[in-house]
């Protein structure tokens, strides 16, 4: 476990970031004991209260278990962590983690299908102006990066129309993960966002209150990026 001394004192965020990285990379393995508070403070060059605050944050994130009178044990992030870990997982050493991207695209497709159905059932015609304006903006964009952002705005309106706090919070978290990787995903996503007519057809189904059609169109639309990503991985595997 290669700990680095903290240059700025009394900044538990820096300690937290370092320890999270050690947990996610496996440097700190599930079931292992975290070094004692005193040892961490000495190794990092900070006060014990600062270390304590950082470790408590780790516990709230589900990454360690603090036992009164005992050791602090590292937990398996795959079993105890939350969506807030995704931004750290999607980019590793400046490179996209392909397995994480695939998982996000799969979740996005499932979430989008259900959101579209709810939007059609709950708001239908009321969602029309916002969705139409979003599609018009998308259709007017020539740059692939700008198209991604316009498509994101379309889905933001659709989530509003679904009127589900859980789906809204899930969308917010996935957007937080997705936005830093927008440029890297341009080639994959343009197969989808470059087809505004599909977005227009989805919007029409929602406005008509046709939940089944909205779900079918959302599923077909969102499967495009997933299929392109699988093709990309296949091409990479075939490259000598």
From TrEMBL:
InterPro entries assigned to the protein according to its UniProt record, in alphabetical order: GntR_C, TF_FadR/GntR_C, Tscrpt_reg_HTH_GntR, WH-like_DNA-bd_sf, WH_DNA-bd_sf
Pfam family, any one: FCD
Statement: the UniProt record of this protein carries the keyword Transcription: yes
HTH gntR-type domain ranges (all copies): 9-77
Organism: Nocardia fusca
Listed name of the protein: GntR family transcriptional regulator
Keywords: DNA-binding, Transcription, Transcription regulation
SMART domains: FCD (SM00895), HTH_GNTR (SM00345)
Phylogenetic classification of the source organism: Bacteria, Bacillati, Actinomycetota, Actinomycetes, Mycobacteriales
Transcription regulation is among the record's keywords: yes
